[in-house]
Design brief:
This protein has 335 residues and is an alpha+beta fold. The protein is built from eleven helices and 15 strands. It has two domains: 3-26 and 160-333, Phosphoribosyl-aminoimidazole Synthetase, Chain A, domain 2, CATH 3.90.650; 49-155, 60s Ribosomal Protein L30, Chain: A. 37% of the residues lie in helices and 29% in strands. Strand 7 and strand 8 (186-188) form a beta hairpin. The radius of gyration is 19 Å and the shape is globular.
Amino acid sequence: MNLHALVDALRGSPGFAHKRDIGDVMDALDRALPGGMQDMAQAVAIGDDCAAIADPSGEGWLLLAIEGLVEQFVSRMPWFAGYCGVMVNVSDICAMGGRPIAVVDALWSDGADASSPVLEGMAAASARYGVPIVGGHSNHRAAHGQLAVAILGRAKKLITSFDAQPGDELIVAVDLRGAYEEPYPYWNASTRAPAERLRGDIEMLPQLAEAGLCDAGKDVSMAGLIGTALMLLECSKVGATIDLDAVPRPDGVPLLRWLLSFPSFGYLLSVRPAHADRVIARFGERDIAAARIGRVTTSPEVWLTLQDERALLWNVAEQAFILAATAARAEAAHG
């Protein structure tokens, strides 16, 4: 597959399409709220991995997030869906420089037997990551299984999607010690890893934030690495050139599949050049693959390179990806 075919495949992928739905929700909220979304009181704008709310104690921020699991995923892989319900929320908290406190869930099923493997998966992740399940909602009389999990965390210093700066190095950190949950794009480096290692790994992001080494980034989501990069760059109103040859990936995995994969531990960070070597070294100390894959630019264009090819993926100033279309148009109108 040449680069231009790969770009077309990324643009047409389900992961990209699902993330673009976020803009419709943001538009609806912007119209419905009395003062629009800009009046919502939190530390960072809507569109980040978590809501960040000033901690009443005066020290740092409370982080609040929720994830809904796709119905097909819950029905076909109930145990792993339950596990992921906790795991992906933990990842969202860590992506913003925080530490998880507790989770709650909302679970619908056609009978108690159908809900058991989901709950068992949640319990396994709760125990392995050391994050308690403290309550929730259940309904055993639903026609179909559905799961949503919410999480509370706390951060001393934030990593956000809105602070990438021109000149930053884009660094991806991903745990390659896993395997796919076939036939899905889920790269699982969690369920068979030692619990102690998992807990140490999720400490990496808050430690980087508190050391002043990183203040911008996101966890790699269902949109894959490149979709995650688009979200980060759009929120920060910047662009980038991304070198696909530099992306760490498992042996034998085709490039397109890897770029559309959802890793259990994967983060894209925008790091000042002076800190890049230290950030990469810290991940290396825990045997997590980390590498420079690009540089942030003032221009809002996102370019991909592969061997001797170069192709434009997106212009985030001309075409909204996840941000509300109304907000994007207003920003363009005011220069």
